[in-house]
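Researcher: Let's do a round of design. I'm pasting the structure tokens now; please hold your answer until I've finished.
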């Protein structure tokens, strides 16, 4: 795959005169993929409440959030640097800063490396070195294992590549305890099994994009029914694993299992509905695959909010 020199019509060129300061600042923020980071932080902060059995030190929360944003932002910027060739060919990514020329590849590379280094030192000095090591591991895994190795080679790219995002729960826990335990490991597994059924519906929607650039997302190489079966399998495992935080681990009170059951039940309802439509040969807009994608974000958000609230109602 080679870098693409042409750009979609109407986008900004690389001339410095066409890159106003405000737009440049916005472009660098876009390199960090803020919407993705929002979800990462939503799965980090509640775990700090669980680890503290209540309200953690608020300065610690702030430093962890800032460090987490820089860490994930650095990894995302490096991901954009590596994927700039295929981003130029995909409709959903053709307006990213490197494609439009608002940020140069060299600027993006320096920005991504700088954020990664600063975030690691930030965690080490202001949080603890275990959290710093976990943060650095997440960056290196996302860049080298997922982006450079898995993404363009296997349909399992999202399954195993998602581990980088799952590490956030360990960072949240270790920030408070400076150690690891079984509770964050369960939540790690919940996110691990959540990631494929979260992302595959979106991949089904934009599979033409991935097919165009030769990225073997599962929906590109398998039919809708196969993908829907995989989504259903991962969904069931995810819901069952989520309940083990309550039993047998006993890490929560009564609120968490009630919420996890209700949220998981609605998830399974949507997953089964998607499977049923795929089994009946439904395609196009009537497949409604994005219903599960949107619900998956709501599910993760609400489940981790409950993780944070549960210590106060035991």
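Researcher: That's everything. Go ahead.
Model: Designed sequence:
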């Amino acid at each position: 795959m080679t870098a693409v020199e042409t750009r979609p019509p109407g986008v900004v060129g690389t001339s410095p005169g066409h890159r106003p300061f405000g737009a440049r600042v916005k472009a660098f923020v876009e390199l960090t993929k803020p919407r993705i980071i929002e979800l990462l932080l939503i799965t980090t902060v509640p775990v700090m409440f669980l680890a503290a059995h209540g309200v953690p030190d608020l300065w610690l929360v702030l430093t962890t959030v800032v460090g987490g944003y820089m860490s994930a932002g650095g990894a995302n910027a490096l991901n954009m640097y590596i994927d700039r060739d295929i981003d130029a060919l995909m409709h959903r990514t053709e307006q990213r800063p490197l494609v439009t020329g608002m940020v140069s590849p060299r600027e993006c590379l320096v920005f991504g490396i700088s954020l990664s280094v600063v975030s690691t030192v930030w965690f080490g000095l202001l949080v603890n070195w275990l959290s710093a090591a976990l943060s650095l591991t997440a960056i290196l895994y996302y860049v080298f294992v997922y982006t450079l190795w898995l993404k363009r080679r296997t349909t399992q790219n999202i399954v195993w590549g998602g581990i980088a995002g799952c590490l956030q729960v360990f960072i949240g826990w270790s920030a408070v305890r400076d150690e690891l335990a079984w509770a964050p490991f369960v939540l790690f597994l919940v996110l691990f099994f959540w990631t494929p059924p979260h992302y595959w519906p979106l991949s089904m929607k934009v599979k033409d994009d991935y097919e165009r650039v030769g990225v073997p997302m599962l929906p590109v190489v398998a039919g809708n029914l196969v993908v829907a079966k995989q989504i259903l399998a991962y969904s069931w495992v995810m819901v069952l694993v989520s309940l083990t935080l309550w039993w047998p681990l006993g890490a929560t009170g009564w609120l968490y299992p009630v919420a996890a059951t209700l949220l998981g039940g609605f998830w399974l309802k949507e997953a089964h509905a998607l499977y049923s439509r795929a089994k009946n040969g439904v395609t196009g807009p009537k497949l409604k695959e994005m219903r599960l994608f949107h619900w998956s974000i709501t599910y993760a958000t609400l489940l981790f909010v409950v993780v944070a609230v549960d210590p106060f109602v035991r």
